[in-house]
Batch of 3 targets.
Target 1
Amino acid sequence: MRTFSARLSRTVTAAACTLAVLVLGGQAAAAPPESSLALSLRHSDGTVALTQLLCDPAGGSHPTSAQACAALADAGGEPAALDSTRPGTACPMIHAPVRASAHGHWKGKPVHFTTTYNNGCLADVESGGVFGF
């Protein structure tokens, strides 16, 4: 049984290496992003939205990663310091709380942030788009 397990492990490792070479086309992989945050929004109805925000370079699954990265950069990577002034954006005065969380790292510094906004629109506006997903 141990021999089969060892052979299987070597086979899986070899397959992963081959796949990596094929995917990368023999080129060196790009440098990892300087910042990576797992973001979540827990809505009052129990649904949860999740996304990943990568910065420097901007990317991940966040729909407006460049805008969100710029907002965080302006706030020094501190979600609690995000600028909540986005002119021309009005939100309905509907009380439907969302609990927003950000966990990961910003330029090597750990980030652990949780807050509650009155609704999803305010989460987007008051976070400069970081929680706009």
Target 2
Amino acid sequence: MAAGIYVGSTSGYSGKNMVIMGLGLRLQKDGYDVGYMKPVGAMPHERGGVLGDEDAFFVQDVLGLDEPAEKVTPVLVTQDFKVKAFSGQCEDYMPAITSAYRDLSSRHDVMVVAGSGSMYSGRYCNVDGIRVVKELGIKAIIIDRLHKELNYDYLVVLKDTLGDNLAGVILNDIPGNFMNEVDGLIKPFLERNGVRVVGVIPKDPLMGAIKVGDLAERLGGKVISAQNKSDKVVENFLIGTMQVENFMTHFRKNKNSAVIVGGDRSDVQLVALEGNCPCLVLTGNLYPNDIILTRSEILNTPIVVVRDDTYTVAKKMEAILSRHKLRDVIKIRQGAQLVSSSIDFEYIKEAAGL
């Protein structure tokens, strides 16, 4: 049987794929034959007539694996699955997960097993991360992504729950100004409670970035000028509802920010264009005037027109930038690099029994 490492998290969208790919690529580089499994898939996706999990297909592509979807993701959470589960007709899926794991791990040196959502997601049908880790008898690494604050209580409770199965935790998305607190207070607190911190990954704006073309699609809008520059990258956004002078002050501090502004505010649009923003998002389905359009073409700055009002677009933007999937090659490289330089691999290998 291969060594096994389960990668879970305290909440959804915490960076599991990034850590899994970084871990997998690094172990491959170290000469190990790496297998991959995501026992519970919450993103059903069809490929070549086979139903699997969208993330699982993607991670396999990156790691150069091609295992049968029903083995990689034995449990797929479809609408039908949920209806059955909530009506109390949940079968025991654990034997299918265990058997798939055994089969896959017999062909590899080490298995990287991906969690879905948080460690308690799937509890309604007894396929939560806690149970999966215990039944497979493997070591878990839990990611906690900083969102306003870290879930230190949750991590200590997980240690109580998982005991020796918890190999350690990774703190993700930590901004520079918070590093001292992490090193001076939070890390020592966790370690006193038996929770080993195996990595602290710094915040990297590129990891949350999205291309203009993808952004337009996600906002249900369309790129109406400088379409050939739709692959420019947006890392953040600013709302241009304020007075021009105030807007300029904010704008100077936030490079690579898309500017969301009413289609009728040509004063702010012009400032944003001349200030080299990656794209303009015009709300209220209003098209810009000819001067703005011409400048946009000359400066190679795409303009996206969307139906919604500014507030709605800003809320959507926030959700998109915090949950954007790691799909681009640049991001995969960057992510793998971040993981590689921030994580104690020797300890993880030792904990997994490699």
Target 3
Amino acid sequence: MECTVRWVADAGMVMLAETGSGHTLAMDGAPEGGGRNLAPRPMETLLVGAGGCTAYDVVLILQRGRHAVTGCEVRIQAERATTDPKVFTALNLHFIVSGRDLPQPAVERAVALSHEKYCSATAMLGRTATITTTVEVRPA
């Protein structure tokens, strides 16, 4: 896996990342740090990646279990250290999973498997942050 990140010199602190799979992602800094708030912050993109990684796992696990999952949303609340490096110190991942006749235990198991076994992103973040999860199951 690879990517390239380039600073767009005439745009404040905008960075353009190109992934190995050929996709482009823009990032920017906060105005107080020289950015212009034109795109997500780099640390926000880290959270987005973790949310996408774990949501992918949960949906795939439920589908493989032949559950009729129709939606999955992960709302992440994060806390960061107050001194540099301002790593994440606490994360709560709130899963809202919808489907037809989805059993709560199956969804909780899928979330636990993602967190404990499959999600590389939360495994890395768990090195500096306490990670908690909550689950809400909604009918389709």
